[in-house]
Amino acid sequence: MRFRRDAPLDTGQVTDLRGSRMSGPGGVAVGGGGLGLVALVVWLLISLLSGGGNGLGQLAPLDQQTVGQGGQSGQIDTPSDLATCRTGADANARDDCRIVGVVNSVQKFWAGVFANSNKPYTKVDTVLFTDQTQTGCGVATSQVGPFYCPEDKLVYIDLGFFDELKSRFGVKVTPFVEAYVLAHEYGHHVQDQLGVLEQIRGDTQGPESKSVRAELQADCYAGVWAAHATETGLIEQLTQQDINSGLDAAAAIGDDRIQEETQGQVNPETWTHGSSEQRRRWFSRGYETGKPAECNTFAGSI
Length: 302
Description:
- The chain has 302 residues and is α/β, with parallel strands linked by helices.
- The protein is built from 8 helices and 8 strands; from the N terminus they run ββααβββββαααβααα.
- Helix 4 crosses helix 5 (210-228), helix 4 (175-194) crosses helix 6 (240-252) and helix 5 (210-228) packs parallel to helix 8.
- The longest helix is centred in the middle third of the chain and has 22 residues, at 95-116.
- It is globular.
- The two termini are 30 Å apart.
- The model is unreliable at 23-61 and 63-78 (pLDDT under 50).
Protein backbone atom coordinates (compact mmCIF):
# COMPACT_ATOMS: atom_id res chain seq x y z
CA MET A 1 0.00 0.00 0.00
CA ARG A 2 1.50 3.31 -1.07
CA PHE A 3 0.27 6.87 -0.65
CA ARG A 4 0.44 9.52 -3.33
CA ARG A 5 3.50 11.52 -2.37
CA ASP A 6 1.96 14.97 -2.75
CA ALA A 7 -1.42 14.12 -1.19
CA PRO A 8 -2.11 16.49 1.72
CA LEU A 9 -2.77 14.93 5.13
CA ASP A 10 -5.32 16.27 7.60
CA THR A 11 -3.89 15.67 11.07
CA GLY A 12 -6.99 17.29 12.55
CA GLN A 13 -8.70 13.88 12.27
CA VAL A 14 -6.25 12.24 14.69
CA THR A 15 -5.75 13.16 18.34
CA ASP A 16 -2.38 12.11 19.73
CA LEU A 17 -2.40 11.30 23.45
CA ARG A 18 0.56 8.94 23.35
CA GLY A 19 2.84 9.25 26.32
CA SER A 20 0.18 10.78 28.55
CA ARG A 21 -1.62 8.93 31.30
CA MET A 22 -5.24 9.70 31.97
CA SER A 23 -7.08 8.22 34.90
CA GLY A 24 -10.76 7.84 35.52
CA PRO A 25 -13.39 5.69 37.20
CA GLY A 26 -12.99 1.98 36.66
CA GLY A 27 -15.47 -0.84 36.38
CA VAL A 28 -16.85 -0.08 32.92
CA ALA A 29 -16.82 -3.10 30.65
CA VAL A 30 -14.92 -2.01 27.57
CA GLY A 31 -13.08 -5.26 26.93
CA GLY A 32 -14.11 -8.09 24.66
CA GLY A 33 -15.52 -10.38 27.29
CA GLY A 34 -12.09 -10.83 28.85
CA LEU A 35 -10.44 -11.57 25.52
CA GLY A 36 -8.16 -8.56 25.70
CA LEU A 37 -6.09 -8.30 22.56
CA VAL A 38 -7.29 -11.59 21.13
CA ALA A 39 -9.96 -9.72 19.17
CA LEU A 40 -9.28 -7.26 16.39
CA VAL A 41 -12.19 -5.08 17.40
CA VAL A 42 -13.29 -5.37 20.98
CA TRP A 43 -16.74 -5.34 22.45
CA LEU A 44 -19.11 -2.86 20.91
CA LEU A 45 -19.69 -1.45 24.38
CA ILE A 46 -23.21 -2.75 24.06
CA SER A 47 -23.94 -2.34 27.75
CA LEU A 48 -23.68 1.40 27.19
CA LEU A 49 -25.89 1.59 24.13
CA SER A 50 -29.46 2.76 24.29
CA GLY A 51 -32.23 0.74 22.71
CA GLY A 52 -34.98 1.95 20.45
CA GLY A 53 -35.77 2.28 16.80
CA ASN A 54 -36.84 -0.30 14.30
CA GLY A 55 -35.01 -2.41 11.81
CA LEU A 56 -31.31 -3.10 11.53
CA GLY A 57 -30.05 -0.71 8.96
CA GLN A 58 -30.87 -2.32 5.63
CA LEU A 59 -28.65 0.19 3.85
CA ALA A 60 -31.11 0.73 1.03
CA PRO A 61 -30.12 4.42 0.72
CA LEU A 62 -26.54 3.29 0.07
CA ASP A 63 -27.45 0.70 -2.54
CA GLN A 64 -25.34 0.64 -5.70
CA GLN A 65 -23.21 3.57 -4.56
CA THR A 66 -19.67 3.98 -5.76
CA VAL A 67 -17.42 6.91 -5.11
CA GLY A 68 -15.15 8.57 -7.64
CA GLN A 69 -13.22 11.08 -5.65
CA GLY A 70 -10.53 12.71 -6.73
CA GLY A 71 6.11 1.60 3.12
CA GLN A 72 7.42 -0.70 5.12
CA SER A 73 5.36 -2.52 7.68
CA GLY A 74 4.89 -3.26 11.01
CA GLN A 75 6.35 -1.67 13.98
CA ILE A 76 4.75 1.52 15.09
CA ASP A 77 7.21 4.32 15.71
CA THR A 78 7.72 5.95 19.08
CA PRO A 79 5.58 9.04 19.66
CA SER A 80 6.37 11.97 17.42
CA ASP A 81 4.72 15.23 16.45
CA LEU A 82 1.82 14.51 14.12
CA ALA A 83 1.96 18.12 12.99
CA THR A 84 4.92 17.11 10.84
CA CYS A 85 2.72 14.61 8.96
CA ARG A 86 1.97 16.83 5.98
CA THR A 87 1.87 14.69 2.82
CA GLY A 88 1.58 11.18 1.51
CA ALA A 89 5.38 11.08 1.37
CA ASP A 90 5.35 11.34 5.16
CA ALA A 91 2.74 8.57 5.31
CA ASN A 92 5.01 6.35 3.24
CA ALA A 93 7.95 7.06 5.52
CA ARG A 94 6.39 7.07 9.01
CA ASP A 95 3.95 4.69 10.61
CA ASP A 96 2.10 7.30 12.63
CA CYS A 97 1.70 9.51 9.57
CA ARG A 98 0.34 6.49 7.72
CA ILE A 99 -2.37 6.17 10.37
CA VAL A 100 -3.35 9.77 9.61
CA GLY A 101 -3.45 9.00 5.89
CA VAL A 102 -5.63 5.93 6.37
CA VAL A 103 -8.09 7.81 8.58
CA ASN A 104 -8.28 10.60 6.00
CA SER A 105 -8.89 8.14 3.17
CA VAL A 106 -11.53 6.09 5.00
CA GLN A 107 -13.48 9.17 6.04
CA LYS A 108 -13.27 10.80 2.63
CA PHE A 109 -14.70 7.64 1.13
CA TRP A 110 -17.64 7.38 3.53
CA ALA A 111 -18.37 11.10 3.31
CA GLY A 112 -18.71 10.62 -0.44
CA VAL A 113 -20.96 7.58 -0.09
CA PHE A 114 -23.25 9.37 2.32
CA ALA A 115 -23.34 12.49 0.15
CA ASN A 116 -24.32 10.41 -2.88
CA SER A 117 -27.13 8.99 -0.76
CA ASN A 118 -28.23 12.46 0.41
CA LYS A 119 -27.21 11.66 3.96
CA PRO A 120 -24.86 13.65 6.22
CA TYR A 121 -21.66 12.00 7.36
CA THR A 122 -20.02 13.22 10.56
CA LYS A 123 -16.25 12.88 10.61
CA VAL A 124 -14.83 11.58 13.88
CA ASP A 125 -11.31 11.48 15.26
CA THR A 126 -9.06 8.55 15.93
CA VAL A 127 -7.38 8.87 19.33
CA LEU A 128 -3.89 7.43 19.71
CA PHE A 129 -3.02 6.58 23.29
CA THR A 130 -0.48 4.68 25.34
CA ASP A 131 -1.37 2.23 28.11
CA GLN A 132 -4.61 3.87 29.30
CA THR A 133 -6.98 6.71 28.51
CA GLN A 134 -10.34 8.06 29.60
CA THR A 135 -13.13 7.65 27.05
CA GLY A 136 -16.83 8.37 26.90
CA CYS A 137 -17.30 4.65 27.52
CA GLY A 138 -15.05 4.55 30.58
CA VAL A 139 -11.36 3.97 31.13
CA ALA A 140 -9.74 2.04 28.29
CA THR A 141 -6.43 0.24 28.61
CA SER A 142 -4.19 -1.08 25.88
CA GLN A 143 -5.48 -4.58 26.70
CA VAL A 144 -8.88 -3.95 25.15
CA GLY A 145 -7.51 -3.42 21.65
CA PRO A 146 -8.91 -0.95 19.10
CA PHE A 147 -12.54 0.10 19.49
CA TYR A 148 -15.17 2.64 18.56
CA CYS A 149 -16.97 4.35 21.42
CA PRO A 150 -20.51 5.36 20.44
CA GLU A 151 -20.83 7.58 23.51
CA ASP A 152 -18.19 10.11 22.43
CA LYS A 153 -18.05 9.13 18.74
CA LEU A 154 -14.32 8.43 18.72
CA VAL A 155 -12.07 5.59 17.56
CA TYR A 156 -9.42 4.58 20.10
CA ILE A 157 -6.23 2.63 19.54
CA ASP A 158 -2.98 1.97 21.34
CA LEU A 159 -0.63 1.39 18.42
CA GLY A 160 1.22 -1.24 20.42
CA PHE A 161 -1.72 -3.44 19.47
CA PHE A 162 -0.03 -4.22 16.19
CA ASP A 163 3.06 -5.58 17.95
CA GLU A 164 0.74 -7.76 20.03
CA LEU A 165 -1.08 -8.95 16.93
CA LYS A 166 2.24 -10.03 15.48
CA SER A 167 3.81 -11.60 18.57
CA ARG A 168 0.78 -13.39 19.99
CA PHE A 169 -1.09 -14.40 16.86
CA GLY A 170 1.59 -14.57 14.21
CA VAL A 171 -0.01 -11.96 11.98
CA LYS A 172 2.28 -10.33 9.46
CA VAL A 173 1.45 -6.71 10.18
CA THR A 174 1.64 -4.91 6.86
CA PRO A 175 0.55 -1.31 6.27
CA PHE A 176 -2.71 -2.65 4.90
CA VAL A 177 -3.36 -4.72 8.03
CA GLU A 178 -3.13 -1.48 9.99
CA ALA A 179 -5.52 0.11 7.49
CA TYR A 180 -7.93 -2.82 7.77
CA VAL A 181 -8.09 -2.41 11.55
CA LEU A 182 -8.93 1.28 11.25
CA ALA A 183 -11.38 0.79 8.39
CA HIS A 184 -13.20 -1.81 10.47
CA GLU A 185 -13.52 0.62 13.37
CA TYR A 186 -14.87 3.32 11.08
CA GLY A 187 -17.31 0.70 9.84
CA HIS A 188 -18.75 0.78 13.35
CA HIS A 189 -19.05 4.56 13.08
CA VAL A 190 -20.96 4.10 9.84
CA GLN A 191 -23.25 1.67 11.66
CA ASP A 192 -23.71 4.22 14.41
CA GLN A 193 -24.68 6.87 11.85
CA LEU A 194 -27.20 4.48 10.29
CA GLY A 195 -28.74 3.53 13.64
CA VAL A 196 -27.49 -0.06 13.60
CA LEU A 197 -25.50 -0.09 16.83
CA GLU A 198 -28.41 0.88 19.02
CA GLN A 199 -30.27 -2.22 17.84
CA ILE A 200 -27.91 -4.91 19.09
CA ARG A 201 -28.23 -4.55 22.82
CA GLY A 202 -29.16 -7.81 24.51
CA ASP A 203 -27.90 -10.08 21.73
CA THR A 204 -24.18 -10.09 22.33
CA GLN A 205 -23.03 -13.69 21.93
CA GLY A 206 -23.61 -16.65 19.68
CA PRO A 207 -22.90 -17.62 16.06
CA GLU A 208 -26.02 -15.84 14.75
CA SER A 209 -26.07 -13.01 17.29
CA LYS A 210 -26.46 -9.38 16.35
CA SER A 211 -23.03 -8.72 17.80
CA VAL A 212 -21.43 -11.14 15.35
CA ARG A 213 -23.51 -9.75 12.51
CA ALA A 214 -22.40 -6.20 13.37
CA GLU A 215 -18.73 -7.21 13.44
CA LEU A 216 -18.98 -9.01 10.11
CA GLN A 217 -20.71 -5.99 8.59
CA ALA A 218 -17.81 -3.81 9.78
CA ASP A 219 -15.41 -6.27 8.10
CA CYS A 220 -17.45 -5.97 4.91
CA TYR A 221 -17.41 -2.18 5.13
CA ALA A 222 -13.62 -2.31 5.47
CA GLY A 223 -13.55 -4.31 2.24
CA VAL A 224 -15.81 -1.78 0.50
CA TRP A 225 -13.42 1.03 1.45
CA ALA A 226 -10.47 -1.02 0.19
CA ALA A 227 -12.21 -1.44 -3.17
CA HIS A 228 -12.30 2.35 -3.56
CA ALA A 229 -9.23 3.37 -1.58
CA THR A 230 -7.30 4.66 -4.59
CA GLU A 231 -10.28 6.77 -5.65
CA THR A 232 -9.97 8.96 -2.54
CA GLY A 233 -6.84 10.57 -3.96
CA LEU A 234 -4.60 9.66 -1.04
CA ILE A 235 -3.65 6.06 -1.78
CA GLU A 236 -2.11 5.48 -5.19
CA GLN A 237 -1.49 1.76 -5.03
CA LEU A 238 -3.17 -1.19 -3.34
CA THR A 239 -1.97 -4.60 -4.48
CA GLN A 240 -3.45 -8.07 -4.23
CA GLN A 241 -0.64 -8.85 -1.81
CA ASP A 242 -1.96 -6.06 0.43
CA ILE A 243 -5.47 -7.48 0.28
CA ASN A 244 -4.18 -10.96 1.03
CA SER A 245 -2.47 -9.69 4.17
CA GLY A 246 -5.78 -8.23 5.31
CA LEU A 247 -7.52 -11.54 4.67
CA ASP A 248 -4.85 -13.36 6.66
CA ALA A 249 -5.33 -10.94 9.56
CA ALA A 250 -9.11 -11.38 9.43
CA ALA A 251 -8.69 -15.16 9.62
CA ALA A 252 -6.17 -14.95 12.44
CA ILE A 253 -8.62 -13.21 14.75
CA GLY A 254 -11.72 -15.28 14.04
CA ASP A 255 -13.45 -16.43 17.22
CA ASP A 256 -12.96 -20.11 16.39
CA ARG A 257 -9.23 -19.80 15.79
CA ILE A 258 -8.71 -17.71 18.92
CA GLN A 259 -10.68 -20.13 21.06
CA GLU A 260 -8.82 -23.11 19.65
CA GLU A 261 -5.45 -21.52 20.36
CA THR A 262 -6.26 -20.11 23.79
CA GLN A 263 -8.74 -22.66 25.16
CA GLY A 264 -8.13 -25.78 23.11
CA GLN A 265 -11.78 -25.98 22.08
CA VAL A 266 -14.34 -24.00 20.10
CA ASN A 267 -17.64 -22.82 21.59
CA PRO A 268 -19.74 -20.95 19.00
CA GLU A 269 -22.27 -19.94 21.66
CA THR A 270 -19.72 -17.48 23.06
CA TRP A 271 -18.71 -15.94 19.74
CA THR A 272 -18.82 -12.15 19.47
CA HIS A 273 -16.99 -11.49 16.18
CA GLY A 274 -17.49 -14.47 13.89
CA SER A 275 -15.38 -17.34 12.63
CA SER A 276 -12.19 -17.02 10.60
CA GLU A 277 -14.04 -18.13 7.48
CA GLN A 278 -16.83 -15.63 8.03
CA ARG A 279 -14.49 -12.73 8.61
CA ARG A 280 -12.52 -13.48 5.45
CA ARG A 281 -15.68 -14.01 3.44
CA TRP A 282 -17.40 -10.80 4.45
CA PHE A 283 -14.30 -8.69 3.96
CA SER A 284 -13.93 -10.29 0.52
CA ARG A 285 -17.55 -9.61 -0.29
CA GLY A 286 -17.13 -5.93 0.44
CA TYR A 287 -13.92 -5.74 -1.55
CA GLU A 288 -15.20 -7.67 -4.55
CA THR A 289 -18.53 -5.83 -4.86
CA GLY A 290 -17.47 -2.40 -3.63
CA LYS A 291 -21.09 -1.80 -2.56
CA PRO A 292 -22.16 -1.05 1.02
CA ALA A 293 -25.59 -2.51 0.31
CA GLU A 294 -23.95 -5.90 -0.17
CA CYS A 295 -22.90 -5.81 3.49
CA ASN A 296 -26.31 -6.48 5.01
CA THR A 297 -25.26 -9.18 7.43
CA PHE A 298 -28.55 -8.78 9.31
CA ALA A 299 -30.57 -10.56 6.61
CA GLY A 300 -30.59 -14.33 6.48
CA SER A 301 -27.78 -16.66 7.42
CA ILE A 302 -24.22 -15.44 7.85
